[in-house]
Design a protein that fits this description.
There is one protein chain. By secondary structure, the protein is α/β, with parallel strands linked by helices. The protein has two domains: 314 residues, Rossmann fold (3-Layer(aba) Sandwich), CATH 3.40.50.1820; 124 residues, no CATH class. 31% of the residues lie in helices and 16% in strands. The protein contains 16 helices and 16 strands. The strands form four sheets. It has a nine-stranded mixed sheet. Strand 1 and strand 2 form a beta hairpin.
Length: 486
């Protein structure tokens, strides 16, 4: 390997990566200034150029967050806006397609360093980018003082501003790593998949990507009835109340300065842990001062369902789907409460979900709320993209490794990730060949004079190849369609 392959010159200076077999990795590259102190809750700012060669052999610190129960602690910091790039060692005559991965975690936890992206580079022949973004109250917070301080900045959705900053960085710099800025796929799971949807409907992200993959995305949801976004004025009111509860009073500028003086850990962690966030998303008690995403009027100008209905989303090919035992957030405590949401269709829903009245409450909640939160909204997204003339690959993942059968009730939330990334912890070669994303995303040619419109398409050669298990029945889907009034 030529030594100069490890060094790449980007817009702010030179970085030096590490050879890992047949690939090269560049880790911990800053894509924005550290947004600390007076820059807390501001839009990403350009990185200051550095002198010499910057070491890119280690991941940067992850976003401040509560530790995952049972997991070993890892480095976190408010200074967390770093990205990572993987590229093949072998040079090609043409630029390689680019995959940008957005992790999930309910917008309150998660880290770019967790995910192994090498397979996409080794086998897929791609340049892959992962990154961190601000989370919890550091990622979603809108105080009125911010409008007075920076009236031209979008407000509130700071995590999405970070994601757009990464995509802009990709457009300016990925060619230096051998990537094609005109062939960018954004992909994410859970809140990462929701981030993909947010980027699809954001006018600020238009033209920054060309394909999209959404795995079990629920926040934001393509359906308002599943998880609705709040308006900016209500979010600002909650921020003011949170400051008062923290003992901070005064005019907006003074309050904002006092909030910025608080330790990042206190701001991000107070009351904001994953289980509490999921309960709030399901309609439970609100977390003080935390709202997750919002309609801010600049970055998110309308709710996803309205954008999809009006054809105002990014017109790109899409893969979307969910798992057969996916996330089912609910605060219902009785069967009557479960069926009350169907209003005039309650009797019909009972006949479909609990015809004999012998389904347990837990099983009923799982079936109904997974359909409500994950399954039906994903179906709707695929339908709206198809209506808009775009290719939509809709999947249902239900494979459970033999080692976990009897322990897991089905393919739980996130279980598809090891197969999509080709890193199942326990699997035989037969299992690997059964359930994985086949072929390099973004490499398959689109329609042409030679192949015609039935070509395998510009997203993947095949979506998830494993289609075992029962999908949401047509009758249940029809019930939801009637309930939500398509």
């Amino acid at each position: 390997m030529a030594q100069d392959q490890l060094s790449v010159n980007i817009e702010w200076g030179m970085v030096r990566g590490t050879a890992e077999g047949r690939l090269i990795s560049f880790k911990g590259i800053p894509f924005a200034q550290p947004l600390v102190g007076a820059l807390r809750w501001r839009a990403p700012q350009p990185v200051k150029p550095w002198q010499g060669v910057r070491d890119a052999s280690k991941f940067g610190p992850d976003a401040v967050q509560l530790p995952t129960p049972g997991a070993a602690p890892w480095p976190t910091s408010e200074d967390c806006l770093y990205l990572n790039v993987w590229r093949p060692v072998d040079q090609t005559d043409r630029p390689l397609p680019v995959l940008v991965w957005i992790y999930g975690g309910g917008l309150v936890r998660g880290r770019g360093s967790r995910y192994v992206m090498e397979w996409f580079t080794r086998q897929g022949g791609m340049v892959v980018v992962s990154f961190n973004y601000r989370e919890s109250r550091l990622g979603f917070f809108a105080h009125p003082g911010l409008a007075a301080e920076a009236p031209k900045d979008p407000r509130g959705n700071h995590a999405y501003m970070d994601q757009i900053a990464v995509l802009q960085w990709v457009q300016r710099n990925i060619a230096a790593f051998g990537g094609d800025p005109g062939t960018v796929t954004i992909a994410g799971e859970s809140a990462g998949g929701g981030s993909v949807l947010a980027l699809m409907i954001s006018p600020m992200a238009r033209g920054l990507f060309h394909r999209a993959i959404l795995e079990s995305s629920g926040l934001p949801s393509p359906r308002d009835a599943a998880l609705s976004l709040r308006n900016l004025d209500s979010v600002e009111s909650r921020a003011v109340e949170h400051a008062r509860e923290a003992g901070i009073h005064g005019k907006d500028g003074a309050v904002l300065a006092a909030l910025r003086a608080l330790p990042a850990e206190k701001v991000a962690e107070y009351g904001v842990e994953f289980a509490a966030a999921v309960v709030e998303y399901a309609g439970g008690p609100q977390i003080p001062g935390f709202t997750a995403l919002m309609v801010d009027g600049r970055l998110i100008v309308e709710r996803p369902e309205a954008a999809l209905r009006g054809g105002r989303q990014a017109m790109v090919p899409v893969i979307c789907g969910a798992n057969n035992f996916d996330l089912a957030p609910s605060v219902a405590e009785t069967k009557d409460a479960v069926f009350a949401q169907f209003r005039a269709l309650a009797a019909r829903a009972r006949q479909l979900y609990d015809p004999q009245g012998d389904v347990s409450l837990q099983a009923l909640i799982q079936a109904v709320y997974a359909d409500r939160t994950m399954i039906e909204p994903t179906r709707y997204l695929a339908a709206m993209m198809t209506t808009a003339g775009q290719r939509a690959y809709y999947y249902r993942f239900s494979y459970v490794d033999e080692a976990y059968r009897g322990q897991l009730p089905g393919a739980i939330h996130g279980l598809e990730i090891p197969y999509a990334h080709d890193m199942p912890s326990v699997s035989t070669e037969k299992n690997l060949s059964c359930c994985r994303v086949r072929g390099p995303i973004g490499r398959c040619p689109g329609p042409s004079a030679a192949t015609g419109p039935t070509s395998c398409g510009p997203v993947v050669r095949t979506a998830l190849a494993c289609r075992t298990g029962r999908a949401m029945t047509r009758l249940r889907a029809t019930c939801w369609i009637s309930r939500i009034r398509v």
